[in-house]
Amino acid sequence: MTMYTDIVDLREFYESGLGQAARRMIRRRIRTIWPDLRGQIVLGVGYTTPYLQPFRDEAERVFSIMPATQGVTFWPPGGPGLVALGDEADLPLADMSVDRVLLVHGLEGTEQLLALIYI
Questions:
Q1: Omega of the bond prior to 76 within 30 degrees of 0, cis?
Q2: Which residue among 47, 55, 83, 115 is least crowded, i.e. fewest CB within 10 A of its CB?
Q3: Alpha-helical regions (H) of 1-119
Q4: Is the dihedral of CA 94, 98, 99, 104 positive or negative?
Q5: Residue 42: exposure state from Cβ atoms within 10 A (0-12, 13-18, ≥19)
Q6: What angle do CA 6, 116, 52 make, to 5 degrees?
Q7: Has this prediction a pTM greater than 0.90?
Q8: Which residues sit opposite 102 in a β-bridge?
């Protein structure tokens, strides 16, 4: 099994056939857990952009913070940027300002595991 540790590896994986199949299956599962996000603020932590697009038209706000150890990529294509590079253990957000957090590829490279889990 290959570990995808930085933004280049992750982007290449999700552009591959296997990555596209994984994205479709995981998106369906997320949707069963989160059937209705109207009016909610959704934060992605890690490399979450392959999974966030379907929520943009429904949720009040959708954005992502990618860990500095992983790198950052622009998202969404052709629109205003909704991704920031940040310290996963010290997110620049007010308490209780996010309704849902999606964590994808955020645990592999962190040295601050407990701080990340308790965001």
A1: yes
A2: 115
A3: 7-15, 17-33, 49-52, 113-117
A4: negative
A5: buried
A6: 60
A7: no
A8: 44
101: number of Cβ within 10 Å: 15
Phi, psi of 111, deg, nearest 5: -100, 0
Six token digits for residue 54: 């379907």
What pLDDT tens digit does each residue of the chain (119 aa) get? 455 578 889 999 999 999 999 999 999 999 999 999 999 999 999 899 999 999 999 999 999 999 888 888 899 988 899 999 988 778 888 889 999 999 998 767 666 666 666 65
23 token code pair: 């994205």
